[in-house]
Every structure is written in structure tokens, then in C-alpha cells.
Design goal:
Chain lengths: 103, 228
């Protein structure tokens, strides 16, 4: 039963990946729609980032002094100025750890 | 013009920094699977068959918590429904390919690969072999995810929980969006989707993960109307 559910979940996930790629034709996308689709990264990733930083594992708000908030702000600032992925991730993690282990 | 192999390598190179967070996340996932009481084979199978980080954790957590298969499957579908949006964006660049190639590449569409390859496509929209960028970024992400899952399964919690490495996931996405932080309309849309996600986080079946991007896109539509 559970093995069946892995396969169904897998097929379902694969469907989310292949459906648009195979079904949409260029003519179907108007200039307006293309403009809106430009925003996809800007709407999907914050939808994962915000709860990941602001909420704990149980969906409750973290404290304003939570290390995740400090880490996220550091990563945002470093990322904004350097536009370097490694520096962004490393600076975020380091500052997060500093708050956890030093303070 | 760049060759297939060159573009493939650029895809790998562009996504490589993100492996910094994908790798520990895979180890954490493998360890969680075993901790929840699933067999190594079952835990690994989710990485091969579902291949979607966060959705795999939710899937195993729900099943081990006694939820019905239907609920677990639905949640995976909802969490991964964001791929519809990725597919819609990528379709334009993959349209020239044969159906077989489209079906092959689709398996490898994941967050980080989509993000870096989409940036490459926007920069070089007319390159003949630019889909090899997506193949490169996708295959390396896939490979690292498989290896790190297996490591997590067998080495268990070599990544101490106190390190809180799950936090690497929001960080890897922050590293993606910083490119758009200089555009006011994008920042506004980010805030709207992010706050919506926080607000709807407890909605059933993790639907926040698709509701909030749609709210964001709707806001983007209004902003574009107002700009005219």
C-alpha cells in the first residue's frame, strides 16, 4: 500500500513537471502573460523563504531575536551587495551559528 | 555558438554553489527517513521516484504519523504544484525540442535548476542548445540529491541537529532572489507572496505553497496594469 503511494506521488510530481513543458505552445503565451511569468521566481521563492525564517517547525511565529532572522537579514544584505551565491549562503549560516553558539 | 557540452558544463557550474545547501539537506532527509522508522530502500525510493526535497519529508512524516496514503499523496502533489509555474516559464525555451526530450528534461526540473537555467535562458534566448544548461544543472542536482540521501540513510545523523542545517534551504532561495532586489516591483511582489505564505502557512495540505505564489502573480498583474 505504501509502496503504491510512493509511485502515485512520484507520477503526480512528474506530471507537475512535464505538463506545462509539453502542453504549452508559444502562440498560447501573450506578451502580457510572458511579463507576468517573469515574476515566477519572485513569487515562488519568497513563499518558501518567509515561513522558513519567520515560523518554527510547528507554524508559530519565532521570536524577533531568533537566530534565523539574524541569519536571513545577513544573507540578504551580503547577497544584495555581492550577488554571490556562496557568500550569501555562508554568511547567512555563519551569522546564524554565531547567534546560536556564541550568545 | 557554444557547443552542447560547453553549455552542459555551464549549467553544472552555475548551479554548483547551491549544492552547498542541497547536500546537507539530502543527508538530513535520509537520516529523517530512518529515524521515522522507514527502511533504507523505502526512504531512498522517494528520492528516486518523487525527487522533491521538502515534499519527501512531508510524505514520510505524514505516513509515519498515521495519516492515510491519500493525504500524504495529496500533500506531495500540492507542494510540488509550483512546478506548473516553472514549466510554464520554461516551455518557451524548450518548445523546439522533441516530445521525448521534453519528457526526459522534465524529470530534472527542480527549484535551483529552474532558477539558474531560467536566468541563462533569459540571457541567451536564441542559443540552439541552451536546454543543455537545464540538463546540466538538473543532472548534478539529481546526482547530489541521490548520493546525499544514501549518505544520510547509512551515516545517520552525522550532521548534528544543533547546527540547524535545514536553515540552508531558505538561504539558498535568498541567494536566488537577490538578483531581483534592485527592482521595486519585484520587491513588492516578493513581500506580498512571502507574507501571504506566512499567513496561510497552516492552511490544509500545505496549500500555502501554491496559494501565495498565485496571490503574488495576481499582484504582479495589477502592478503591470498600473504601470501602463
Amino acid at each position: 500500500m505504501t509502496w503504491t503511494s510512493i509511485f502515485i506521488a512520484g507520477i503526480l510530481t512528474y506530471f507537475t513537471r512535464m505538463s506545462m513543458v509539453t502542453l504549452i505552445r508559444k502562440e498560447m503565451i501573450s506578451d502580457n502573460l510572458r511579463k507576468i511569468l517573469n515574476y515566477v521566481p519572485s513569487v515562488v521563492f519568497p513563499s518558501i523563504i518567509f515561513p522558513g525564517v519567520l515560523l518554527d517547525d510547528f507554524g508559530a511565529f519565532v521570536n524577533i531575536s531568533d537566530p534565523k532572522i539574524f541569519g536571513a537579514i545577513t544573507a540578504l544584505v551580503i547577497g544584495f551587495f555581492t550577488r554571490n551565491v556562496i557568500l550569501t549562503i555562508v554568511s547567512g549560516l555563519t551569522s546564524y551559528w554565531i547567534v546560536i553558539f556564541v550568545f | 555558438m557554444r557547443s552542447k557540452y560547453e553549455i552542459f558544463k555551464i549549467g553544472i557550474k552555475d548551479v554548483a554553489p547551491h549544492l552547498l545547501s542541497v547536500f546537507p539537506f539530502g543527508i538530513i532527509f535520509g537520516a529523517i527517513g530512518i529515524e521515522l522508522g522507514f527502511s533504507p530502500l523505502f526512504t531512498y525510493a522517494t528520492s528516486l521516484i518523487i525527487f522533491g526535497g521538502a515534499s519527501q519529508i512531508v510524505f514520510l512524516q505524514l505516513l509515519s504519523g498515521g495519516a492515510s496514503s491519500l493525504i500524504a499523496i495529496t500533500s506531495v502533489g500540492v507542494i510540488n504544484s509550483r512546478h506548473f509555474l516553472y514549466g510554464a516559464v520554461l516551455s518557451e525555451y524548450l518548445q523546439k525540442l522533441s516530445l521525448i526530450k521534453k519528457l526526459f528534461i522534465s524529470y530534472f526540473i527542480v527549484d535551483q535548476g529552474f532558477a539558474v537555467s531560467n536566468q541563462y535562458f533569459k540571457k541567451y534566448p536564441t542559443e540552439k542548445f541552451n536546454h543543455y544548461h537545464l540538463i546540466g544543472s538538473g543532472i548534478i542536482l539529481w546526482f547530489i540529491w541521490q548520493v546525499s540521501t544514501i549518505m544520510g540513510i547509512y551515516l545517520g545523523s552525522i550532521v548534528p541537529e544543533e547546527l540547524g542545517l535545514k536553515f540552508a534551504i531558505p538561504l539558498t532561495f535568498i541567494a536566488i532572489i537577490v538578483n531581483e532586489l534592485r527592482k521595486f516591483d519585484h520587491v513588492l511582489v516578493m513581500l506580498i507572496s512571502g507574507l501571504a505564505a506566512t499567513f496561510f502557512y497552516n492552511a490544509p495540505f500545505k496549500t500555502y505553497i501554491i496559494i501565495s505564489p498565485l496571490i503574488g502573480l495576481f499582484a504582479a498583474m495589477i502592478i503591470n496594469k498600473l504601470k501602463k
